Amino acid sequence: MNVYFLVEGKTERKIYPQWINYLAPELQRVKTPSDVNKNNYFLISGNGYPSILDFLVDSVEDINNLACFDYLVLAIDTDDQSANEKVAEIELFIKENNIHLGQCQLKIIPQTVCMETWFLANRKIYTRVPPNAECAFYSQHYDVSKHDPELMKKPENRIETTANFHHNYLKMMLKIKNISYSKANPAEVGQLHYIDELKKRLKSDPESLRTMNHLFGFFEHVQQNI
């Protein structure tokens, strides 16, 4: 099985290879699509939205020319849209631009709200006794250890986007644990111990984090069919 990953931004470009290494270890990364042989994957970042849509057009052209990929995985933030709205938007773009994938299957992974939202699902990083007022503000607004991070809205008086609020929440929680985080250096959340905590959350709280569960389910499918 061969998989082409088109991911949204900096964080995904660094984290997806780490996650694939643990969740679908039989897949080996190649540097270019033309290097694909058997049980390989190629990964490229679309450098954000909406430029990822231009990358989608080019990616489909590569895939159709090579005819060696089984899946094209498009991982994209939903931001302030629902997962269904984002998927519908992508499907409309594909239809309006007359994009056809041939034998390769398209798998759209909407990241609700953003990838940092998923990282908040690790219950071990949540601090139940906030050490300062800033941390207390986040935890009192929304307890991500009890409630689905994908459903968390930003406070009405905040001018930042919901995605930025989730990002800042994550940074605060990790900082209290003496872990630094940035989109350019998100290494900790790609480690096996972190992934294991996310898997535990999905198992204990199966009605939450539906889009992350969708991605993890895809990796299980890949492993079972290699």
Quick overview of this protein structure:
With 226 residues, this protein is of the alpha/beta class. It is 45% helix and 12% strand.
Explain this structure to me?
The protein is an alpha/beta fold and 226 residues long. The chain has two domains: 3-113 and 209-224, Rossmann fold, CATH 3.40.50; 117-204, no CATH class. Helices cover 45% and strands 12% of the residues. The chain contains eight helices and five strands; from the N terminus they run βαββαβαβααααα. The chain has helices at 10-23, 51-66, 83-96, 115-119, 133-141, 162-176, 192-204, 210-224, and strands at residues 3-7, 28-29, 40-45, 71-77, 105-111. It has a five-stranded parallel sheet with strand order 2-3-1-4-5, sandwiched between helices.
What is the CATH C-level name of the largest domain? Answer: Alpha Beta
- What is the 3D shape? globular
CA-based gyration radius: 18 Å
- The total tally of domains equals 2
- Uncertain stretches of 5 or more adjacent residues: none
Order of helices and strands: EHEEHEHEHHHHH
The major sheet is characterized as: 5 strands, parallel
Q: Please state the average pLDDT score.
A: 95
Number of helices: 8
What is the CATH fold-level name of the largest domain? Rossmann fold
Note the gap between the termini: 6 Å
By helix and strand content, what is the structural category? alpha/beta
Helical coverage, percent range:
40-55%
CATH architecture of the largest domain: 3-Layer(aba) Sandwich
What is the number of strand segments?
Answer: 5
Strand content: 5-15%
